[in-house]
Structure formats: C-alpha cells, structure tokens
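On clarity, I found the account of how folds are encoded harder to follow than it need be. Since the whole study asks how a given chain folds, the encoding of that fold should be made plain. The format is easy to grasp once an entry is in front of the reader. For illustration, here is how one protein appears when written out as sequence plus structure tokens.
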Amino acid sequence: MNNELFSLTGRRAVVTGGGRGLGKAIAAGLASAGATVVVVSRTAADVESAAAELGANVHPLSLDVASGAAGQMVDAMEKAAGGAIDIVVHAAGVQHRQPAEEFDAEAWDHVLRVNLTAPFALSQEIGRRQLAGERGGSHIFVGSLTSLISVPDVAAYTASKSGVYGLVRNLSTEWSSRGIRVNGIGPGYFRTALTEKVFADEARYQKMLDRIPMGRFGNPEELAGTAVFLASDAASYLTGQLLMVDGGWTAS
C-alpha cells in the first residue's frame, strides 16, 4: 500500500477541545501526518501550551465553540490556519452526572449545546464553504460508548452522543456525493479530565475494567491513528460510520 494515502500534507485541520485530553492527542496525530492544525479551546492557556508542545504547524485559537457565532469562528479558524479548512474534528465536550429523575434542566441544555448543537453549527458553516468552493473535506465527530449503549446518570450526555451518531449519518447522506465525508470516532474509557470522577470511584473503576475485553483502559494517543485514517485519502470510500475505539467493549 502507498503510505502517501495517509499523508495530510497541505491540508488544514481544526480540532475543537484540542488543548488537552483526547483532542490534544488527535491534534498531535494530524500534525504528525503533515496537516496544519488549529487547536481550539475556551482556555487560552491550554491551547497555547498544546501548540507550543506539538510543533510549528500547530496554532492556538481561544474561543467558545458554543457561542453560536459560527461564521465568525470559522473566519478566525481560517485566519489561524492560513486558508480554507479541509478537516474538522469535534472533540470538545462536557459532562454532567445526575440521576435522570433529578437531572437539572440548565445542565441538560448546556450539555446538548456543547456536545451536539455546537458541532453541528460548526460543521454546517465549514460545509457551506466547502460546498460553495466545490472542495472536498472530512468532518469527524467524536461520539462515545453512549452513542450505542446506555450508562447510568448521564442522560444528557447519552442524548447528545446518540445525536452525534445521527448527525454523522445524516450529513454523510447529504454531502458525500459532493465530496465531503462525515464520520465519527467512538472512544471507550480513556483517562481524561472529563472522566476523572469515574476513575476516582474504585468500585466503578474495577467494574468498567472488567467489562473491557482487552483488559485495560485506552491511552489518548491511541485515537490518533483512527483520526488520521478518517481524515486521509486512505478512507476515501468510508463515510457515515462511527468507528468504536473501545478495547472491544461494544463488541462483547
């Protein structure tokens, strides 16, 4: 196989939530494959630190992807990247844990806005520009185990990540004939700031570990290859799919 199929040289990518955790690992992978990468987060210190660590072709951009100003955000992303965006990875996300019968309405709205509405609005704006310019593109949404199964006490997160899988299918159906591929990555349990409360619960930690056929949790760097594959020409006939990177959890 020609390894050039996996090259992202000359392409411009945006990774939301790219300042730390899974987003940072994905940004590192895209940059190592040759892409110019804009890492986006509300926290300026996170993206500036990530960009300094990941190299000269990674650029920081501090903004709130849930602000609703998609046009202005994409303008800023294009300026930081030095041109039109080819690849977008939606790795920004929030969580709220509470029993369903007690779930706070404001928390519900916040989780849905950040995890589902914001990535749709951003892909919508980037997609409009790609379609108008008759350019192809790769849009990669980050789902979850809860895109396919249920987990207690995270009703809003489950709803948002189930919706993400729906967007992957729908946008792919509408855009793939015009050169824009839309796929998703479904991470299992990786130790990040978002999951730290779960990992701190010893009983829950062991219960989750026992559920994973590979017998271990994931390292954020293990998502990089999946992201590079989906963004590259190696996946030129792959669209509308959610690839689960979960140590075998959803297959068992």
The first helix runs from residue 21 to 32.
